[in-house]
Amino acid sequence: MPDPLPQLNALLDAILPANAFYGEKLGVTGPFRSLDEFTAAVPFTTKDELAADHQAHPPYGRTHSFPLETYPRFHQTSGTRGTPLVWLDDRDGWNWVLDNWEWVWRGAGVSPGDTAFFPFSFGPFLGFWAGFEAATRMGVRAVPGGGLSSEDRLRLLQRSQSTVLCCTPTYALRLAEVGAATGLPVDSLGVAKLIVCGEPGGSIPEVRSRIESAWQARVYDHHGMTEIGPVSVSDEQRPDLLLLRHEAYFCEVVDPATSAPADPGGTGELVLTTLGRYGSPLVRYRTGDLVRPVPHGGAFALEGGILGRADDMVVIRGINIHPSSIDAVVRSIDGIGEYRVEVDQRAALPELRLQVEAADETAARLAHDLRSAFSLRLPVEAVAPGTLPTFEVKARRWHVLK
Fold it and tell me: What local confidence, expressed as pLDDT, does residue 312 receive?
């Protein structure tokens, strides 16, 4: 694995002092002689800092290294954890993003001549814009499926003879349900690969198994962020490993509480530096993603993918619970459609309860399995199919009452 230090020094040399945000924040120029020297001198960047900078300097903040007129690309974070951030890219930065997405495509075994289907309308967040453009740039036929019902998307998926589907894990399961109800079984449509992102499901064995069983196709996980870019893809040989693009990012994992480097095999927070996005860089950015690093190829990969978010974990009667761990139990049981989790923090002792679209006996089995998994009694209520909202992009199943 190449030494990232020359790229880190080149990044700081390119962006300082022109980048007002980092010019003020860092107060250092390097060059650094070692990674230890770099990490000792350069502080973390947090999303709260970026939000404060955007609020103080609307509409785009001061994270840009070049004149604003050189930034043709406009994107916005999803806003699931606060006010959305606008993120701009100059042409070179955007090409770097596309290079990383092309690495994702190739990591999933997608090659020129394949046809990839995108079953949703594109919003302002970066993810699938970059995936779509990277596909066309490398010679993959990219089929847009926005503005259609799920049934019509399945028909277009069939008509276009798409071999690759790119969507969230939730929507892959939703399309399978629609296909079964409308006489378009998804395992007959010719899809060989699904690249899933936006949620941790692709690296959760129970979720991955359900998708692969329904589609009779291989699932590849992927993750990224609007402000960071495309970061990872599943290992071809070990689907429980999420490979990081170390050539494009300086990747660290730290203890969320102490900020010290996390031990291999332990859980920590992923920290990323964008080595080639000079126009809108992030240096030692605390992503909030909890991961388990394990040695791989001279660097490290993430065992189990993205385990959860540091700010999503809830403590119920002394037990740490992440959304991904609830999802794993729910998806291990057949007969459950959508579900909703409610965390009630208004009492002295927080409570967690679920609603599931399922028969009463299936809900009872889920309650039993949750108790076995967490040694907690978590109430489960069965509701009629169609009661709960469905999702095309990031699912928002967790609701916190304070």
Answer: 73
Distance CA 2, CA 355 (A): 49
Q: Report DSSP letters for 12-29, one per residue.
A: HHHHTTT-HHHHHHH---
200-258 pLDDT, tens digit each: 888 888 889 999 999 999 999 999 999 999 999 999 999 999 999 999 999 999 998 89
Contact criterion met (CB below 8 Å) for 139 and 186: no
Q: What integer is the mean pLDDT of 140-168?
A: 95
Q: What is the pLDDT of residue 123?
A: 77
Which ranges constitute the DSSP H helices of 115-250?
127-137, 150-159, 169-182, 205-215
CA 10 and chain centroid, separation: 28
Angle at 309 between CA 304 and CA 310, to 5 degrees: 115
Ramachandran sector of residue 259 (left: φ over 0; alpha: ψ -120 to 50; beta: rest): left
Residues contacting 217, CB < 8 A, separation 6+: 165, 187, 191, 192, 193, 194, 211
Alpha helices in 165-254, H assignment, sequence order? 169-182, 205-215
pTM equals 0.85
Q: H or E stretch including 325?
A: helix 323-330
| Beta bridge partner(s), residue 249 | 274
Using DSSP bridges, classify how beta strands 232-234 and 86-89 pair: parallel, antiparallel or unpaired: unpaired
DSSP string, 168-190: -HHHHHHHHHHHHHHT--GGGS-
pLDDT band at 339 (very low <50, low <70, confident <90, very high): very high
Residue 295 pairs in a beta bridge with: 300
Q: Residue 116: name the closest of 217, 261, 250 by CA.
A: 217
| 263-302 as b/e: b if 16+ CB within 10 A | eeeebbbbbbbbbbbbbbbbbbbbbbbbbbbeebeeebbb
Stretch 303-327: mean pLDDT? 82
For range 366-376, the mean pLDDT: 89
Residue 133 CB coordination number (10 Å)? 18
| Rounded Cα gap, residues 65 and 279, in angstroms | 5
Q: Evaluate whether 210 touches 331 at the Cβ level (below 8 Å).
A: yes
